[in-house]
């Protein structure tokens, strides 16, 4: 029969699949119930082990006192007492070791469970999280607070387990000396009340520290996200001053909290020591008066030493409770944020992807199976329309073939309607993974040394490749085709092929390459309805014209919506819709028709083209567009906030405009490498 070690049982227990509650708990009671449900077996074992250890600690002084009295009594054998004492110490030690193992396991388990809940919630919220909580506070909540919640349950178990042992010790003391037993019985509640009073002062200080520390994390996060832009505009000194000022506020909050924390630490250590001294002094007097035996005094000394354990358990729970109350508020604040979209629909519905796409807010209807462009004088207006088409906010009503997108499961919407921003929100990893997204096989796990080496290679410009085994030929062809359609040969070469590694946010490629990466990712989804926001705004005219031609051919017969004012793309579209600053439709038709008949449309296109509006537009539109000079760098907007509001599909939420603007490729410093295909 195969033997299974205790360690293997632990590994199997903690490796089991743990399902997150659906929906996630939004109350403190819900969180505690979930943690208890997932760990009640190990909690029960930890409680029993702590109880046994406490009883062992309580009985050891009793045996020591008996041993001393027997040693002072002539003719009494010590063998039985010594044997019992040794066995008790050995068993207590073994139980304590096993208890420590369970303690560590519980701490890690509870912290991981709470962290999984928070990470799951943040992935559901997307940009909605920034509505009620800062990014820095969210990072602090996810990283720091789960540990406090996990520690509270363990501290509570410690106190509950020591209560029976404490009752046993008090009973034994009362039976041997009523005065000493009453002294301890009266002193313990007084000490507990004083500790609780001091802890309330600490809780207020902790709340202030957490608020200030969250703001400090927010300042640091903003700087990391926009570091390249910060350096480009020479804003390092302004950031340093802001960070230094906030750091001083955190320091001041810590200094203000130090006296109450120090008072609690001093009192929690001094009170048991003073109680022990008082018991020993009273016991010594009783020994001298003949009321107690020397062995009984030794026993009482051991009892008072044992009382340090429940006293410390009380102190620990009080202190942890102060931290936990603050952490619980932070956790519940995050868990109670409502997302912009809900996913209550469970069954997919029959849907015709070639049906008309209608936006109720603007009244714009986009014909199915056509390449349609949306043009507005302000890019933010056309981007807002595009975002509504992707169902990133359930406040908007959008229908596809007459079916309200809100009545569909979110997964079905994301598979059917894919919205792609101008720049790719890329994670660190191989290029093929950035193109294929969730469809890509995961790369092989790497150690710390390999990751550090690859980061160093990427920062120094040396090509690093991913240690993936084999990419299936079908996926390799699919990713390569998408990159070819986006004319990204220079991108592929710059990172060393499909297996080349991208840095976090793809910082090791240029802005125009990131824009083409976003386009390739969108095309790789092969979505029935594809919405592209300014897909070529950072490219030169030749590349833009080639992409427009290939895009029209690739997406023929499927619904494609593009927000752009580029005549190179507009001339390839089946239909162009011109909307005003309120998002309402002004006119629709071909690019040639609108340019001839709508002066406002012509002004927008000419402004985007970088020519004087007074220049006559009598040439055939497509030819005139091709012949037009490429936009100079000074005419290219540094960023188009409206076009940055989206999150690359299949993500479930759009990124906030403010953060995306920081990452905007066209607005990066001039020192970024140019690969000859950007404006």
Automatic annotation (TrEMBL):
InterPro entries found in the cross-reference section: ABC1_TM_dom, ABC1_TM_sf, ABC_transporter-like_ATP-bd, ABC_transporter-like_CS, P-loop_NTPase, Type_1_exporter
A Gene Ontology molecular function term of the record: ATPase-coupled lipid transmembrane transporter activity
Topology term for the membrane: Multi-pass membrane protein
Domain ABC transporter: start-end pairs: 332-607
GO cellular component: plasma membrane
Keywords: Membrane, Transmembrane, Transmembrane helix
SUPFAM superfamilies: ABC transporter transmembrane region, P-loop containing nucleoside triphosphate hydrolases
Subcellular location, principal: membrane
Signal keyword on record: no
Extent of Low complexity compositional bias: 614-666
Signal sequence coordinates: none
Top-rank lineage group of the source organism: Bacteria
Ranges where the ABC transmembrane type-1 domain occurs: 44-318
Localization per Swiss-Prot or TrEMBL: Cell membrane
CDD domains given in the database record: ABC_6TM_exporters (cd07346)
Transmembrane segments: 42-64, 76-95, 101-119, 156-174, 180-198
Region (Disordered): 609-679
Listed PANTHER family: ATP-BINDING CASSETTE SUB-FAMILY B (PTHR24221), ATP-BINDING CASSETTE SUB-FAMILY B MEMBER 6 (PTHR24221:SF654)
Protein name per UniProt: ABC transporter transmembrane domain-containing protein
């Amino acid at each position: 029969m195969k033997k299974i070690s205790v360690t293997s049982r632990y590994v199997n227990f903690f490796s089991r699949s743990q399902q997150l509650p659906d929906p996630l708990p939004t109350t403190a009671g819900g969180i505690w119930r979930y943690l208890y449900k997932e760990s009640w077996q190990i909690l029960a074992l930890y409680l029993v082990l702590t109880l046994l250890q406490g009883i062992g600690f309580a009985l050891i002084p009793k045996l020591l006192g008996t041993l001393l009295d027997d040693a002072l009594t002539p003719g009494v054998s010590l063998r039985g007492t010594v044997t019992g004492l040794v066995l008790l110490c050995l068993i207590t030690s073994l139980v304590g070791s096993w208890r420590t193992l369970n303690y560590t396991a519980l701490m890690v388990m509870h912290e991981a469970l709470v962290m999984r809940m928070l990470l799951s919630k943040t992935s559901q919220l997307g940009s909605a999280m920034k509505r009620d909580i800062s990014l820095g506070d969210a990072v602090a909540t996810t990283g720091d607070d789960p540990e406090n919640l996990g520690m509270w349950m363990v501290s509570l178990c410690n106190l509950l387990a020591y209560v029976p042992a404490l009752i046993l010790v008090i009973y034994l003391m009362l039976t041997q000396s009523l005065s000493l037993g009453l002294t301890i019985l009266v002193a313990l509640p007084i000490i507990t009340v004083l500790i609780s009073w001091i802890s309330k002062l600490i809780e207020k200080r902790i709340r202030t520290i957490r608020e200030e520390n969250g703001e400090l994390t927010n300042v640091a996060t903003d700087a990391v996200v926009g570091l390249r832009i910060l350096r480009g505009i020479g804003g390092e000194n302004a950031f340093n001053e802001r960070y230094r000022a906030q750091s001083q506020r955190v320091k001041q909050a810590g200094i203000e909290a130090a006296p109450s924390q120090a008072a609690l630490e001093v009192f929690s250590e001094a009170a048991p020591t003073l109680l022990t001294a008082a018991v020993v002094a009273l016991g010594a007097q009783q020994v001298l008066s003949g009321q107690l035996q020397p062995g009984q005094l030794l026993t009482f000394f051991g009892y008072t030493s044992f009382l340090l354990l429940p006293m410390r358990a009380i102190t620990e729970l009080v202190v942890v409770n102060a931290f936990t109350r603050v952490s619980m508020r932070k956790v519940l604040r995050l868990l109670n944020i409502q997302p912009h979209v809900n996913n209550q629909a469970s069954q997919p519905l029959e849907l015709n992807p070639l049906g008309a796409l209608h936006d109720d807010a603007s009244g714009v209807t986009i014909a199915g199976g056509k390449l349609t462009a949306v043009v507005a004088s302000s890019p933010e207006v056309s981007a807002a329309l595009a975002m509504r088409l992707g169902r990133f906010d359930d406040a908007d009503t959008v229908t596809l073939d007459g079916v309200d997108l809100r009545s569909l499961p979110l997964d079905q919407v994301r598979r059917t309607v894919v919205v792609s921003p101008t720049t790719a929100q890329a994670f660190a990893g191989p290029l093929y993974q950035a193109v294929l997204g969730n469809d890509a096989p995961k790369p092989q796990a790497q150690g710390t040394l390999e990751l550090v080496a690859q980061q160093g290679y990427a920062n120094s410009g040396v090509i690093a490749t991913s240690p993936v085994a084999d990419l299936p030929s079908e996926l390799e062809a699919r990713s390569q085709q998408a990159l070819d359609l986006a004319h990204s040969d220079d991108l592929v070469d710059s990172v060393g092929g499909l297996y080349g590694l991208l840095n976090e946010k793809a910082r090791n490629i240029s802005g125009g390459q990131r824009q083409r990466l976003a386009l390739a990712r969108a095309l790789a989804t092969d979505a029935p309805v594809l919405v592209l926001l300014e897909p070529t705004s950072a490219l030169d005219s030749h590349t833009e014209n080639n992409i427009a031609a290939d895009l029209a051919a690739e997406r023929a017969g499927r619904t494609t919506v593009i927000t752009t004012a580029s005549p190179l793309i507009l001339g390839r579209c089946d239909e162009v819709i011109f909307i005003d600053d309120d998002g309402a439709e002004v006119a629709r038709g071909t690019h040639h028709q609108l340019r001839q008949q709508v002066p406002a449309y012509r002004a927008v296109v000419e402004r985007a083209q970088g020519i004087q509006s007074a220049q006559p537009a009598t040439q055939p539109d497509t030819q005139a567009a091709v012949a037009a000079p490429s936009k100079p760098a000074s005419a290219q907007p540094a960023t188009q906030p409206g076009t940055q509001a989206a999150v690359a599909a299949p993500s479930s939420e759009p990124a906030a405009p403010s953060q995306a603007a920081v990452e905007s490729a066209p607005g990066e410093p001039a020192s970024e490498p140019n690969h000859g295909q950007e404006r």
